[in-house]
Amino acid sequence: MTIDVRKQPGGRGSSWLAAVRDYTMMAALLVLPERWRARAFFEMRTARSRLTEDSAYRNLGYWKDDPDSLDKACEAMADLLGEAADLRAQGRVLDVGCGYAEQDVRWLELFQPRQIVGIDLVPSQVRQGRRRIAELGLADRIDLRVGSATELPFGDDWFDRVVALECALHFVTRADFFREARRVLRPGGRLALVDPVTSVDSGVSGYLERSLGAIPRGNVYSPDVYADKLREAGFVDVTMRSLRDDVYPGFAAYLARRLADAEVTDRMNAAVRAMWRQWVLSWQRTTSGRAAYVSKQDYILVVATAP
Boundaries of each Polyketide synthase-like methyltransferase domain copy (predicted)? Predict the structure, then answer.
């Protein structure tokens, strides 16, 4: 059933002053240099723009087994990535783009790695993650730091696993991150990612899509090119699996329902809300919600090994 997300109640989050502020922040994404867009993008999507209900996950979710909430779908995505990375190896794990570190707490519980180090570009998210980790008494096992995925502040051969949960699309660039991940991994170490992949980059619409989504031009390519870039960075045994049909349809249906919720509309950043509404409307205009995304967008699970 198609759900109308075009007209929803406003509330405090839709006051003219808040709306002007929110849209000004979004407009900045169109003019900022690529290297600054990712931080601005995620600072705009603060806790009040969160789509989850009980957690601080920031991914589209894995909907294969019909979870009843985005929280459960996000947790399923984290579990899938943890299994693919083989975090049970009792080693040292680097989580790049860790956000609020919700998945790090989950991985520590499920897989018991010796240590997880998280790094993220957004200081406010790292601060909030640190507070929660301290409250849980896990500060000796999970270490969160502010830093860049493309200039990792660690020595060579330092980690047994490097993981990135739905964030490498925003790194400037993803290929630079691959080289850094290879450098910090020990021989035999594993890189594992879940990552949206887009191959559309044409005209004004392509520029707007990339700018508003904080996607560097250098990250726009097909899954085949993605695998080639991993090999060029020195990785071997590259495997890739499409998760598209277990991600986009379920998330689109959930998002349409969530944007019809007055509580979400009331508190959410107006610009972020408008972006998500457009995403749903675009999805609903395609045949069965698939055609456009089959041709231009994928969502992949990738595993590669450092020789």
Answer: 47-285
Please give the Cα distance from 158 to 141 (Å, whole number): 16
Positive or negative torsion for Cα 165, 295, 247, 257 = positive
68: domain CATH number is 3.40.50.150
> CB-based contacts of 95: which residues, under 8 Å, 6+ apart?
101, 103, 104, 107, 116, 117, 118, 119, 163, 164, 165
Average pLDDT score over residue span 10-39: 67
Buried b vs exposed e over 2-40: b needs ≥16 C-beta within 10 Å? Answer: eeebeebeeeebbeeeebeebeebbeebeebebeebbbb
Over residues 106-128, the pLDDT tens digits come to 999 999 999 999 999 999 999 99
Domain that holds residue 224: 50-201+217-258+271-305
Kindly state whether residue 221 falls inside one of the protein's structural domains. Answer: yes
Cβ neighbour number for residue 261 with a 10 Å cutoff:
14
pTM, two decimal places: 0.88
CA distance readout (Å), 49 to 42, 125, 155, 265: 10, 13, 36, 9
- Mean pLDDT across 242-266: 89
